[in-house]
Every structure is written in C-alpha cells, then in structure tokens.
Design goal:
Number of domains: 1
Number of strands: 0
CATH class: Mainly Alpha
CATH topology: Four Helix Bundle (Hemerythrin (Met), subunit A)
Radius of gyration: 18 Å
CATH architecture: Up-down Bundle
Shape: globular
C-alpha cells in the first residue's frame, strides 16, 4: 500500500477518535477535536497531491479518498446535531445533516454501480472537491468558535452571531452538496440505466 493510501486510511481511523473527543466533555475537548480535524483534513490535501505528483494514483485511492472525507465531515455534522440539541439552530443542523447524508449515500451508490456495471471507478470531480473544502472550512470555523469558548467567556449575543455564521457556512456546504450530487447523478445515469 502506497503512502497516499495510508494517509487515507489514517483519516478514516482518526474519524471515530475525533467524534469521541468532540462529544465527550472534558477540559479543552473542542480544541483537541479542532486540532485532530485540521490534521485529518490536511491528509486529504496531502494524499491527493502526493498521488498525482508521484504517479501513485490507484483505484483504491479514487474510491476510498472521497469515502474517508465523507466519514470525517459527516461525523462532525452528527456531532453538531448533538451540540446544538434543542436550541433554535437545531432544525438547521438536522436538515443540513439529512441533505449531506442523502447526497453521500446517493453518490456512493452510483459509484458502486459504476464499478460493478462498467468496471469504472468514478473519481471526485471539481464540484465534489469544492463541497468537501466548504464543509471542512465550515467545520473548522465552528470548532474554532467552540474551542475559543473554552478559553474566553463569550457573551450570549456574540455567541448568537457566531452561531448564525456557522449555520450560514453549513448551509453553503449543503447547497454545494445538492449541486455536486446532482452532477454525479446526471453523470452516472448511464450506469443506473444499465444496472442489472
């Protein structure tokens, strides 16, 4: 197994650890989860660049790299569903998480059909990459806000404004989920039509 694929697997292994640290309440758990999420996100950038630069692109990497991204970002959204609980922002997180999960299951299904029906691994496209970057940026901002709250007492007004920014960033990524998902589905229609 080459180094980019090892980085992808490391990101997958880090995901449950990140989620546990995010949700278990102890001193500076948001800061630690932020550092872990940033480190895992950087492996996404590094493994892709390394694979292309050193001609180490594999079908395994094409399939597992986007899956590792989905696991990492989806776990964060599920964590924020728990954090926001029954607050006025909770319905936003629930709907956004549903959109993300629906898109990820739909795209993963099409990619599986493409492999079984045509033997083709459908790699991530530009829209999918934009979606992932927007998700990671929004999640990093949200975790940074909560990590800051572990060091500085934020007023309810300031926190309310920051929560609105977080939700806006999450909605932007949800919009990109819909756009990129629709493009994947349209591009995979031939595999769907020929599926047995």
């Amino acid at each position: 197994m080459n180094t980019p694929n090892k980085l992808t697997l490391a990101r997958m292994i880090a995901t449950p650890v990140f989620m546990a640290i995010m949700l278990i309440s102890f001193n500076y758990h948001y800061l630690i989860s932020l550092v872990l999420f940033v480190a895992a996100s950087l492996t996404d950038m590094i493994d892709g660049k390394m694979a292309r630069k050193y001609n180490m692109v594999t079908d395994f990497g094409k399939f597992m790299d986007p899956l590792a991204d989905k696991m990492l970002t989806t776990s964060a959204y599920l964590g924020f569903m728990f954090i926001y609980g029954t607050t006025k922002f909770s319905w936003h997180i629930v709907v956004i998480t549903f959109i993300v999960l629906f898109r990820e299951f739909a795209v993963s299904s099409i990619r599986l059909v493409a492999v079984t029906a045509g033997g083709k691994v459908v790699a991530a496209n530009m829209w999918g990459k934009c979606k992932t970057v927007s998700q990671m940026a929004g999640i990093i901002f949200a975790l940074a806000v909560y990590a800051l709250g572990e060091f500085v007492s934020l007023s309810s007004q300031v926190m309310n404004i920051l929560d609105i920014v977080i939700i806006a960033l999450f909605w932007l990524s949800a919009l990109l989920c819909v756009i990129s998902g629709a493009i994947y589905i349209w591009g995979g229609k031939e595999y769907i039509a020929n599926a047995k």
